[in-house]
Amino acid sequence: MNDELPGPGSEPDDATLRRLAARLGARAADRVDAVAVGRAVVERLRTRAALPLARRGWRRGPIWLRLAAAVVVLAGAGVVARRLAPHPAAPLMADELTDLGAEQLTDLLGTLDQALGTTLAPPEDELDDLDAEQLERVLRAMEG
Amino acid sequence: MASPAPAASDAALIAAWQAGDEGAATELVRRHTRALARFLAAAGAAEADLEDVVQDTFVRAFRGLQRFRGQCQFRTWLLTIGGNALKDLGRQAGRRPVVPLEADVAAAGGDPHDETVARESEARLEAGLGRLSRLQREVFLLRAQQGLEYGDIAAALDTTEGAARVHYHHAVKRLKEWLA
């Protein structure tokens, strides 16, 4: 086994180059334990297969699970949006105030006070003196 | 499930692994580890990292088996994955295996002078390989070291057979110039 390359100035022939190439890495490869590598590879693959969904990425889960997760996220977002958004019922009620009596309006203001945690409603006797337009302004002022 | 016989084809072992037979995976690893390690070492893997890169290559290959459709030999496909793993690890540049001379000469059992000369020649060839483009280096090693056919190399590298031949001849030309 003497694959000495030619001296300076002359190129190696193809056969020499191939023989050398065929031997490259052979000694390093001899030190690799194929059995140990096999065990480690199988173990890594097994570990991967057993990883919880959160670590494998939820997108890899079954379609029904992804849909359920999407529904939960949307429902949660809806609840948050409803809490953050202005009360949608107030403008509708303001349009209908002309149909309400003084007692009903007082009850309504009391309900709003409870919801807002404040006491914005004027005394009951003052409400009797307000017309529908004035009551609407009061309601809008309380809405902010 | 019983493991396939050792003589089973790679395709049969792959099918068995995909059906849940871990023994098939172990047999594929045993069958191809040496060729893969030689390829990676010649392509620039540091000896200290070699086993890790080999292991990583197999894990990648098994996880990506759905992309292997028999377009080339499993080994050829595996070697190209090894090339990618090596590149990703960033260990190609300037990381050549360092082999303790005394231990190797003793283990080889040949004439120490011949062994030393052969090691020097291999070291020069390795240095030359390090100067090639990655594609030239891989084509050269797949052809000259692994003895693969151009058609198989082309399929694994997703190129044409003609292009694989050109890369090989460019590589040989540059290596000869480097080694002269």
How much helical structure, as a percent, in the residues of chain A?
Answer: 55-70%
What is the end-to-end distance of chain A?
Answer: 95 Å
What is the oligomer described by this structure?
heterodimer
Which range best describes the helical content of chain B: under 10%, 10-25%, 25-40%, 40-55%, 55-70% or over 70%? over 70%
Question: Globular, elongated, flat, extended or rod-shaped: what is the shape of chain A?
Answer: rod-shaped
Biggest beta sheet attributes of chain B:
none
- Specify the CATH class of the largest domain in chain B: Mainly Alpha
Which architecture name of the largest domain in chain B does CATH use?
Orthogonal Bundle
Give the amount of beta strand of chain B, in percent.
under 5%
- The CATH homologous superfamily of the largest domain in chain B: RNA polymerase sigma factor, region 2, helix turn helix motif
How are helices and strands ordered from N to C of chain B?
HHHHHHHHH
What is the count of structural domains of chain B? 2
User: Would you report the number of β strands of chain B?
Assistant: 0
Explained architecture:
The complex is a heterodimer of chains A (144) and B (180). Chain A is mainly α. Chain A has helices at residues 14-23, 26-30, 34-50, 53-56, 63-84, 89-95, 102-116, 124-127, 132-143. In chain A, helix 6 (89-95) runs antiparallel to helix 9 (132-143). With 180 residues, chain B is mainly α. Chain B has two domains: 7-98, RNA polymerase sigma factor, region 2, helix turn helix motif (Rna Polymerase Sigma Factor, Chain: A, Orthogonal Bundle), CATH 1.10.1740; 131-180, Winged helix-like DNA-binding domain superfamily/Winged helix DNA-binding domain (Arc Repressor Mutant, subunit A), CATH 1.10.10. Chain B is 72% helix and 0% strand. Mean pLDDT of chain B is 86; it is low at 95-108. Chain A binds chain B through residues 1-6, 8-12, 14, 17-18, 20-29, 31-42, 44-46, 48, and chain B through 22, 25-27, 29-30, 33-34, 37-42, 45, 47, 50-51, 54-55, 58-59, 62-63, 97, 99, 104, 110, 114, 117-118, 121-122, 124-126, 129, 140-141, 144-145, 147, 172, 175-177, 179-180.
